[in-house]
Design brief:
The protein has 378 residues and is of the alpha/beta class. The chain contains twelve helices and twelve strands. The protein is globular and about 80 Å long. The termini are far apart. It binds pyridoxal-5'-phosphate. The site of pyridoxal-5'-phosphate has 14 residues, from α3. This is LADA_0F12134g1_1. Its cofactor is pyridoxal 5'-phosphate. GO terms for molecular function: carbon-sulfur lyase activity; pyridoxal phosphate binding. It comes from Lachancea dasiensis.
């Protein structure tokens, strides 16, 4: 069944009432079946926490539905979490590598690994150390496209290198949501998403997703999530479920808008010669692997480097439609002077997350301010 249909019908088998729109279940606890009482000690350990509802930290109806749909959309057993970061922690805890090889990646993932190395002895390396240090049971973590640049990293290349030495590849695919790319075709072993971004798509919920290759690992991760206390809340799960229904429409439109905006800026770069120094986006990358990776379209996020931090400040203050805020993936376009939230980034970098507005309006909004900067009017 196609992506669009799965996103709407992937949880039909979970219907418990005749309502077409699933109800918002807020209960934190569920009545035991008094005709069939089994003590916790006697429970079959192979039964998943989602199969018999007991307490909402274990599982709840909205999370169960969510995992049904997302597992189909990602083509693999998936577990949902309260945020992208809690999903990342859960993966490191389940796969417990002794050595983690981290590419340049979202800055909080670097900080998460630092915490685990401080408390648990995890050794953290860069990708340059793979040949010398990587071995069986270790984990390579890459992010593609890379935040905040929106440029792709060669996932297949790192999957091959991981597998050659018995290690696994964790791909943070937040910036390449389905249907833009299929990480399993690229050799990923574990796929992570900040569901807060394109899955949620409306800047109104936090969620994380880990997809793995087998049902048993997903079941174990759900059991561990119970102890970590990181299941997404009921209301957030309901909102996420509603968001998934339109995911294909949103993501395709966002990707098309972004690529069109990047093309416009690139084609007219000479007109903003003293403002716009560089554009980062997958659609401008020449490497062969990029098109093979982004089979459904390039990602909906890109970055520009301006001539000075002062120009960045003036740009983000003067655009009207692009909202000056961090995060990405929502239906509304965002712009961010990235130095506001990342202390290690180039102070001349502005990140843009493209929404579903009409492309002509987005181009007008951005270009009108770039023109004023170029002419010295600002
Ligand atoms: C690439 C990437 N991974 C992970 C995260 C963390 O996700 P969350 O904010 O949902 O915890 C983010 C958040 O911006 C991100 O951009």
């Amino acid at each position: 069944m196609s992506f669009a249909t799965q996103s709407i019908h992937g949880d039909d088998e979970c219907n418990r009432v005749p309502d077409v729109a699933p109800p918002i279940n807020v209960s934190t606890t569920y009545r035991f079946d008094n005709d069939n009482l089994v003590t916790a000690a006697e429970l079959d350990p192979s039964i998943g926490v989602d199969e018999q509802l007991v307490y909402a930290r274990e599982s709840h109806p909205n999370a169960v539905r969510l995992e049904h749909v997302i597992s189909k959309l990602l083509g693999a057993p998936s577990v949902v979490y309260s945020s992208g970061l809690s999903a990342y922690f859960a993966a490191l805890i389940r796969f417990k590598p002794k050595k983690l090889f981290q590419a340049a990646c979202y800055h909080s993932c670097v900080e998460a690994a630092e915490i685990l190395s401080r408390i648990g002895g995890l050794k953290v390396y860069t990708l340059d150390d793979i040949d010398a240090e990587c071995g069986p049971g270790d984990l390579i973590h890459i992010e593609s496209p890379l935040n905040p640049y929106g440029e792709c990293v060669d996932v297949s290349h790192y999957a091959e290198r991981a597998h050659k030495v018995g290690a696994k590849l964790l791909l943070d695919a937040t910036l390449a949501p389905p249907p833009l790319s299929n990480p399993w075709d690229l050799g990923a072993d574990i796929v992570m998403h900040s569901g807060t971004k394109y899955f949620g798509g409306h800047s109104d919920l936090l969620c994380g997703i880990i997809a793995v290759k087998d049902v048993e690992t997903a079941r174990l991760m759900r059991n561990e999530r119970l102890v970590l206390g990181t299941i997404p809340a009921s209301l957030e799960s309901f909102l996420m479920l509603r968001s998934l229904r339109t995911m294909e429409l949103r993501v395709r439109r966002q990707a098309e808008n972004c690529t069109a905006l990047v093309k416009y800026l690139n084609d007219h770069k000479a007109e903003f010669g003293s403002v716009l120094k560089h554009i980062h986006h997958g659609s401008l990358q020449q490497e062969e692997f990029v098109k093979k990776q982004m089979t459904g379209g390039f990602g909906p996020l890109f970055s520009i480097i301006l001539n000075s931090p002062d120009q960045c400040v003036k740009l983000v203050k003067n655009v009207k439609l692009f909202q000056h805020a961090t995060s990405l993936g929502g239906v509304e376009s965002l712009i961010e002077w990235r130095a506001m939230s990342d202390s290690h980034i180039d102070k001349k970098l502005v990140r843009l997350s493209v929404g579903v507005e009409h492309i002509d309006d987005l181009i007008d909004d951005l270009v009108s301010v770039l023109k004023r900067l170029e002419s010295g009017d600002l």
